[in-house]
Each structure stands twice: as structure tokens, then as C-alpha cells.
Amino acid sequence: MCNVLPTPAIEPTTDTFEARLVNALNESGLMLLTSIGYRTGLFEALRGQPPQTSQEVADRLGLVERYVREWLGGMVAGGVIETDPETQRYWLPDAHAARLTDIEGANLAVYAQFLSLLGAVEDEVIICFREGGGVPYARYPRFHEVMATDSAQTVLPALLDSILPLAPGLIERLESGIDVLDCACGRGRALLKLAERFPASGFVGYDLSEEAIGWARQQADALGLANVAFTVRDLSDFDTTAEPAAFDLVTTFDGIHDQARPLSLLRGIHRSLKPGGVYIAQDIHASSHHHLDREHPLGALLYAVSVTHCMTVSLAQGGEGLGTMWGRERALEYFDRAGFTDVTVHQLEHDIQNDYFVCRP
Fold first, then answer.
1. pLDDT at residue 1 above 70?
2. Of the chain's two ends, which shows fewer C-beta atoms within 10 Å, N or C?
3. What is the phi/psi pair of residue 180, to 5°?
């Protein structure tokens, strides 16, 4: 039997593909400049301000004017910032500020940081292509910081009003007092918010990163939270080391697919739940089939994140290398293999990037 390739609806041409790549190169440059603008505070300094010279912008932030001027040129070329050529002044339109600053809704400049952060390990990833293995967590010094800003826009705003209500009666139980675990908690911002909101409940966070756990502990101390504890812990053997029937609620936020042994973690979560307990997992919305990801609005970006972080950090631990885009079908298979018999899948209106799974034993 011969294999026949599917015929695309519109036959591509070299010229149209070249135009697409040229545009992608240009937009990639814009994203690098966007990351710089976010990290230096330039967008915030321009937000809601009258037209300013490059020197005035630089002086407001204590930056070097020559760098600010060149950055402004790139933002003008990219159609992000406007300028008056006669006065050589610059301003950020309000409509653009709405998505490049924290004034309202999602600040998309946050996500531009991933490109430069992950591009820094490109040489090591290429070695892995040729020799196998992976790039360890230690090579990503800012990853947890960036992920914390990401979750601040996807998880935290929706946590109380949209995510917890996915499990009916859960908020009332938290108010009465239950035991909660967050696995792969990162900097623990979700747990910190829950511990503040539900003082009668007890909260525990586990993560492999000493830096992330250290940050979470400092924040808990600063907030005076006595009902939350953070522990550095390798969860690859959680299926055998998890304390049985210890928690009423377990959560993972974008925390399964980059584990060394994701199924072991899921089985440990199942083991750690008390009778009547519930597990809520947020993970990437995708298909487990490449051809079905063609229509994903962030498909290529998320595969890039997988190759340069999520998959490779798992492989660096001798792990499975499940990858960012493991997909809903495989996720449901893993939940079933871990022992969860009742799993519902939800998507939230504000979050095109993730699925939310409510799992019960």
C-alpha cells in the first residue's frame, strides 16, 4: 500500500511562504524589543503620557538615552509606538498600552520574555539533538520568575471566581478548613493567595527549585501566613513516597508535562487524596496529534517552549520528556492510568492556552 499525502486546500507557493517567513523574522525582532520594553519599564513610562523625547523617557527611568532612542526606533518601525518627526517626540497609544502594560486585561509583553529566555539555551539544545539528554533546570535562572508573571495573568485572577468553582462545594470546604497540596508550585503565588483567603485551611507546596521555594517562603513570612509551608521536593517518586490520604485538595498549575515521571506524580497525587478529595489540574490546551495542532493559535510557540524547556528539562533528569504539547487525549489517558475514574475538562473564557481538569478517584 502506498502512502498518499493529503492535498492542502490551497497549494502553497515559494513566494507566499517566503513572505510569511520574512514577516515572522520581523515580528520576532519586535518580540525581542517588547521583552526589553517590559523588563526596563519603558512601556509603563510611556503609558498615558503626552509625547516625550527619548531623553525625557530615559531620564524618567534612569536609563541611557542612546539605547532608549534605538529601542523607540524599533517600536516605531513595528507600529507599536507613534512619533512626531518634527518634534522627535514619542507616545504609546492607549489601545496598545492596554495589552503592553498592567492597565487592564492581559499584559502580553510578559510572554515576549520567553523568546529571549529560551533562546539563551539554543546551543545546548542543539547538542541534545545530536547526543541526547537534556538541558537542566539550573540553566534557566529566570524561568520561575517569568512563569510567576504568566500565572499572575492566567491563574490568579480566575482562581477564586472561576477555577475553584469548577469543583462544586470546594469554596465552602476551604472556608471550613481542609488540607491542600500544590505540586510543582513554583513560586507558590496560587497557594499564597489561597492561604490569605482561607485562613482555616492548611496549605503545602512542593517544588524542585530551591530558588522558587526560597522566594515563596520569604513571601509567606512577609505576609505573616502561618497556614502555608513550602518544601523543596523531587516528585519523581511521588507514587511511592506520597503520604496516603493526607489532602482534601491537590492542585497542579502547568506542572505535569515537564516532570521527569509525570505518571508517577499523578499516581502519587491519587494516593495522597483523602476519600472525597479532588484534584484540579491546569495544563496546556492542545491535541495529542500534530496535525490537529495546526489550528492552535499558539501552536508553534508552545512547541518551541517544549523543545527548549519543558521536554528537555525532563530528559535532563532521565525522564520521559512528555513535552508541553502532550495534549488533552494523552492527559486523559494518564489520569485514567493514575486511577482517576471521574475526570471533567473545562476551558475558561479568559485563557486560550490551558485546559482545566477536575479529577476524582
1. no
2. N
3. -130, 140
Could you give the CA distance from residue 290 to residue 326 in angstroms, rounded to a whole number?
10
Over 60: is that where the pLDDT of 5 sits? no
pLDDT digits (tens, 9 = 90+) for 223-256: 999 999 999 999 999 999 999 999 999 999 999 9
Confidence of residue 9 (pLDDT cuts 50, 70, 90): low
Mean pLDDT to the nearest integer, 55-79: 98
Does CATH place domain 118-360 in 3.40.50.150? yes
| Whole-angstrom distance, CA of residue 319 vs CA of residue 322 | 8
Rounded to whole angstroms, what are the CA distances from 280 to 42, 123, 233, 258? 37, 36, 20, 17
The predicted structure's pLDDT at residue 92: 98
**In this structure, what is the dihedral angle of CA atoms 162, 164, 166, 167, given to the nearest 10 degrees?**
-160
* Residue 290 Cα to chain centre, angstroms: 21
Q: Is the pLDDT of residue 343 over 70?
A: yes
Read off φ and ψ for residue 231, nearest 5 degrees.
-135, 135
For residue 330, which of 298, 293, 360 has the smallest C-alpha distance?
293
pLDDT of the residue at 2: 44
Classified by CATH at the fold level, domain 14-104 comes out as Arc Repressor Mutant, subunit A (1.10.10)
